[in-house]
């Protein structure tokens, strides 16, 4: 399956460039550059669109799974009360953890910003670090929020049937996985 997909991707990407190069009498590597320069626009190979499209699909899947988890019953009032205490404790832990990480994040951001400003490294490294750190923290928050909201729902699902409990738990875990991928 994977080998077939890889073959389709490689043929779809290489053949048009090779054909363009053959018409102009140049190699397939130079064809993309010459074609872009001749038309006055930047040509992005279609294969590069797979990552953003995959990210969007992953985020949509995470949203759908989140909605399915939230649609499950929370259980009895006692289960809801216990889940609320667990959620409160988990969020307090996450808040404390993020305070410590924020200090490191700010220090490293300043160092990377200075290094980019004086020309030791590219300025985009600083931007990449900021966006990566922000989205990593956001993924952690969303994962913790989903996990704590799913606890009582998983317990209630397991009381109904083993399959239902596993479905809720698996979907809650998959939300975190898809958010990280997306």
Features:
182 residues; mainly alpha; 2 domains; 0% strand; disordered N terminus; Sodium-translocating pyrophosphatase; magnesium
Percentage beta strand: under 5%
Which bin fits the share of residues in helices?
Answer: over 70%
Alpha plus pi helix count = 6
How many structural domains can be distinguished in the coordinates? 2
Sheet with most strands: none
Radius of gyration: 24 Å
Q: Structural class of the helix and strand makeup?
A: mainly alpha
Termini, distance in Å? Answer: 23 Å
Model regions low in confidence, pLDDT < 50 over at least 5 residues:
1-24
Instruction: Compute the number of strand runs.
Output: 0
Oligomer classification: single chain
Q: What is the molecular shape?
A: flat
Q: How would you spell out the order of helices and strands?
A: HHHHHH
Mean pLDDT score, rounded? 82
Transmembrane segments: 45-66, 100-118, 124-144
Pfam family, one: H_PPase
Protein name: Sodium-translocating pyrophosphatase
Subcellular location: Endomembrane system
Describe the fold and architecture.
It is built from 6 helices and no strands. It is mainly α and 182 residues long. The chain has 2 domains: 43 residues, no CATH class; 133 residues, no CATH class. The N terminus is likely disordered.
